[in-house]
Design goal:
Layout lengths: L6 E4 L18 H16 L1 H12 L14 E6 L23 H20 L7 E6 L14 H14 L3 H17 L14 E3 L14 H16 L9
Parallel strand pairs: 1-2, 2-3, 3-4
Helix pairs in contact: 1-3, 3-6
Length: 237
Amino acid sequence: DHDSIDALVMTQGMATVQSFTETVDGNDEKMTLHYWSRMAFADRLLPSLRRKQKSSSTTTTTTMPGGKGCSSCVMSILSGGVHTPYKNLMTDPLLKESYSVSNAASAAGYYNDLFLDSLSRRDGNQNIQFIHAAPGFINTNWGTELPWYLRMPIRCIQSIAAKDAAKCADLMCDPILKCANGTMTRKGQEKQPGLFILNEDATEGNLTNNHTKEAMETVWKFTADILGKVGIDINKS
């Protein structure tokens, strides 16, 4: 438990070519890291993120010129603005029948969009900025789980074309700092509800064309069911 939290940043993940691989909870390993665990963290830490708003509202030193107050944020760094919608959302949301590397990537990114957008619109979360970011191609040890014949070419390409990790960190931190000092804006508006998509160059990206109310409700319902099995009730947050 924390008194208050300024920012929650989630980057956990893995790069594999394995098929659906069950965890002890019956969910896929990759989806657990890229989606289930991230949404569990976001939900469980909401009270501390909200308390940040209350403490900021009583502190004049955290107000920037123009009267903009502080804001906490939740950032999931995965594939914001890059992924495609997962086409089997309504028929196979857990990917047990249609798992592939491509479908797992699409589903994880799509679900991050939909669930975080739903969280951003719930009562009590108006002053928390929810962000789904895409870091781009970075020169890190990404892909350590891949077989050597895939990993080695990636390392060669990284050394030539990939972005420096420190540069990526600077860009990903940009909205966090703007949330903290109250200068976070969205397409010319100081306050706008909903999820913020962050491109790799720290500009604002776009949601998919299939980002609908029905899709948001569907993802919320099955996420509530899966997380509920481990004692996390997102409907009470």
